[in-house]
Amino acid sequence: MGAELLVPIAHIKLTTEPGTFFTATGLGDLIISPFILQWKDGFFLGRPFWSRISLGFMLPTGSFDANEKVNTSANAYQFNPYYAFTWEVLPKWEISGRALYLWNSKNLDSSFSAQAGQAIHFNYSVSYEIVKEFRIGPSGYYLSQIHDHKLNGEWLDSRERVLGLGAALHWQSNKTFIRVQGYKETMVKSRPQGTRISISINQIF
After folding, report:
1. Mean pLDDT taken over the chain
2. How many other β-carbons are positioned within 10 Å of the β-carbon of residue 192?
3. How far apart are the C-alpha atoms of 93 and 10, rounded to whole Å?
4. Beta bridge partners of residue 194, listed in sequence order
5. Nearest CA to 37 among 78, 84, 86?
6. Could you count the other beta carbons within 10 Å of the beta carbon of residue 23?
7. pLDDT given for residue 105 in this prediction
């Protein structure tokens, strides 16, 4: 058992037409998982297998202004539990995946009533250990909204969808994990489309 705390730093650029764009940079919404249950030393088809369940929450601690085109905060509370696994399918080869459910509270801005729809999303990676504790391989994610947005009491028929395809680098030293990911988005519906780059640093205490 354990817990997790993540502090995201975001830089967002939204292009609405050639030559017109909006940006936002700053701390994102705090991610906290007060309960993590992990199983280790397991096996699947005779190969090492690890998995865990996490009850994650996102708190609206980032910057939000209803008059801005882009923000680093969703300005709502979110519940985002997940199940994750890693399978060492061959020596030096791993397959990892994560399945998540997303629930959003109403937007905290009192000037209007909005609530984003519920969604399910998945991510995966296939990695090869080039040298000890350094891995590289293809990676991706998929999100599908399963419940409509609600704005000022009206349901909106605008469910989101996105598929991200790319690659990831992973480095581990003792209890420190650094991961760099880059994705190109496709199959996009009812949301901005673009390129996503993320760097995550995890420290186990």
Report:
1. 92
2. 14
3. 31
4. none
5. 84
6. 12
7. 95
- The amino acid sitting at 130 is I
Distance CA 187, CA 116 (A): 20
Decide which of 6 and 78 is more confident. Answer: 78
Q: What is 38-98 written as a DSSP string?
A: EEEEEEETTEEEEEEEEEEEEE--S---TTSS--S--SS-EE--EEEEEEEEETTEEEEEE
Distance between CA atoms of 157 and 204, rounded to whole angstroms? 42
Terminal Cα-to-Cα distance of the chain (whole angstroms): 13
Which is more confident, 165 or 20? 165
Parallel, antiparallel, or unpaired: how do β-strands 119-131 and 20-27 relate? Answer: unpaired
Q: Residues 8-20: pLDDT tens digits?
A: 998 888 887 777 8
